Amino acid sequence: QVQLVEFGGGAAQPGGSLRLSCAASGFNFSSSAMSWVRRAHGKGLEWVAGIATDDSHTYYKDSVTGRFFISRDNALNMLYLQMNNLKPEDTAQYYCAKRRASSSTWSGAHDNEYWGQGTQVTVSS
User: Fold this and answer.
1) CA 48, CA 95: separation in Å to the nearest integer?
2) How far is it, in rounded angstroms, from Cα 31 to Cα 42?
3) For residues 60 and 48, is the Cβ–Cβ distance under 8 A?
4) In this structure, are residues 72 and 26 in contact, taking their beta carbons and an 8 Å threshold?
5) Backbone φ and ψ of 88, nearest 5°
């Protein structure tokens, strides 16, 4: 029922930019806080950014603060991640995720639920 489809990934050089998108369906998107999470090859899931039900409150992992910007369009059921000044360590599979309504934090292992296969971001020179 719940479906999150990520797209917009690809290859970029260090210092480059990419914009990721996530199309949501099957739930009340406008009432759900959302996150972007990522998994690098051979690594665990890592929370990257979060956004409240509107654009007024956003949250970021320290290493992406000032470079990545999360946003949403509730009318279109879309979530976005603008990624600037990309670094090789940003290479990962990126997923959008629905934050659990019961969560009081963002980055915990059980704070978000995600679906789909994600979109790959590869940063290399």
Assistant:
1) 10
2) 34
3) yes
4) no
5) -55, -35
> Which residues are CB-contacts of 117 (< 8 A; sequence separation ≥ 6)?
6, 93
Instruction: Indicate the average pLDDT of the chain.
Output: 94
SS3 (DSSP) at 120: strand
Q: How far apart are CA 52 and CA 74, in angstroms?
A: 11
Tell me the per-residue pLDDT of 65-97, one tens digit each, with 9 for 90 and over: 999 999 999 999 999 999 999 999 999 999 999
User: Which residue carries 């590869």 as its tokens?
Assistant: 122
Say what the alpha-carbon torsion angle 38, 43, 47, 49 is, to the nearest 10 degrees.
Answer: -40
d(CA 27, CA 97): 12
Question: By C-alpha distance, which of 35, 42, 7 is closest to 116?
Answer: 7
